[in-house]
Design a protein that fits this description.
alpha+beta, 3-stranded antiparallel β-sheet, disordered N terminus
Length: 416
């Protein structure tokens, strides 16, 4: 059997800094290869200047290099290249799908790191909840989150740009970017939707908490929040190996439609609402995504798994069936986005289910998203995130934050 040398001199993170091979500055100490063998527990280590000669001495039939498309982002991984590579038989097609599949199922060691990123990020979210007050800037909350993650958890980086939406900004799905840099003043009566996650050794977390800036939900805020929480918990109860992720999205959608009908925003038969994709008007994104070294991790659409071309479902970042060892986010949300609401009101197939008088009361409401990170187990799931979730827990925790808040006991993080 011919030998294959797997050449993994490639990016493994989200940013240029995250590389397998690191350049050593001329004034830094240069460690011998034995140092790196011990540090990384590998069988063999050589300087990168020797890569061509070392590989040639092994006489490989083929070098496998990593090149392929991330089906989530559309980006192409940067392939390894070095002086002298032209002398080898190189195949850049075999390795990418294999490595992507390896990243889908987490090892026990990877799960430990992901538990840690969730623990620190959860605590950072709680610090923000204790500190927030009307009159503060959204970016103050972003700064506090980052400060806690770094000082208390050694997390120098976040997994993505923090989303700190208050008021109407809470309905902007990817708010917080350079064009809208979390710069609004938080006002009394606002809902705050803060989507933030710390990163440790390239492993991410992705947590969203929604809560009232004043510490007390209004009746309408409570109704919408509890609708989203109900869908989140329904999905968590249903998660287990073999379950279709698109079916979990459909489950969340149905719960939202039932609850919006109960609130009075919608009217009519829920089955008929499902047929016209009314749920996507209020939740235009997918239910969740794979999580790991990338916050939207690779492997969502391997060969044989096709994207579903329907509103809402087409935004799912994976359509796989769940397997033990997968780590995903569960992030249902209900948003009142004027553009989507106006479109629905112009569509006779959808507008017949909308109570326009009640809907008018929710214009400018913003949105609610509840996002937790979970690991699929043999019989269900493990909840990695640990933050106050019910209305009662949030209000009590924020009230205590005015004085010396006692630690929140997250009993719900037990394995199911």
């Amino acid at each position: 059997m011919s030998r294959r040398i797997q050449l993994l001199c490639c990016r493994v993170g989200r940013k240029p800094r995250d590389t397998v091979l690191t350049l050593v500055l001329c004034f830094a100490r240069i460690h011998p290869p034995e140092f790196f063998k011990k540090k990384y527990a590998v069988d063999e280590a050589h300087y990168v200047t020797e890569i061509s000669s070392v590989l040639a001495s092994k006489k490989p039939a083929v070098l496998l290099t990593l090149r392929g498309v991330n089906t989530d982002s559309g980006n192409i991984s940067k392939e390894a290249s070095f002086e002298g590579i032209s002398q080898f038989n190189v195949n850049n097609k075999i390795l990418h799908p294999e490595i992507a599949e390896c990243r889908v199922i987490k090892t026990d060691m990877e799960l430990e790191v992901l538990r840690y990123t969730n623990k620190i990020s959860s605590e950072a979210h709680k610090e923000v909840m204790k500190a927030v007050k009307p009159g503060m800037k959204e970016y103050e909350m972003e700064s506090l989150f980052q400060h806690y993650c770094y000082t208390r958890g050694g997390m120098r980086h976040t997994s993505y740009t923090c989303i700190c939406g208050s008021g109407e900004n809470s309905s902007v799905l990817h708010y917080g970017h350079a064009g809208a840099p979390n710069d609004r003043t938080i006002e009394d009566g606002d809902l705050c939707l803060f989507d933030m996650g710390g990163e440790y050794y390239c492993y991410g977390s992705d947590i969203t908490c929604t809560f009232p800036a004043s510490g007390k939900f209004t009746a309408d805020q409570r109704a919408v929040y509890e609708a989203v929480l109900k869908s989140s918990r329904a999905v968590m109860k249903a998660v287990k190996p073999g379950v279709s992720w698109p079916d979990m999205h459909r489950l969340a959608d149905r719960v939202h439609l039932e609850e919006l009908t109960r609130i009075g925003i919608l009217k009519g038969n829920v089955d008929d609402m499902v047929k016209v994709h009314l749920g996507a008007v209020f939740m235009p994104h997918g239910l969740g995504h794979l999580l790991g070294i990338d916050v939207h991790d690779v492997g969502g659409y391997p060969e044989g798994v096709e994207r579903i071309d329907e509103p809402g479902l087409r935004s799912l970042r994976t359509a796989r069936s769940l397997e033990q060892g997968m780590v995903l986010t569960i992030e249902p949300g209900i948003y009142f986005i004027d553009h989507l609401l106006d479109q629905a009101l112009r569509d006779p197939a959808q507008s017949c289910f909308i109570n326009s008088d009640v809907l008018r009361r929710f214009r400018g409401f913003g949105g609610v998203r509840i996002e937790d990170d979970i690991a699929v187990t043999a019989t269900g799931m493990e909840l990695l995130t640990c933050v106050p979730r019910t209305v009662e827990e949030i209000e009590a925790f924020m009230a205590e934050g005015q004085g010396s808040a006692k630690s929140f006991d997250c009993l719900s993080s037990q394995k199911q």
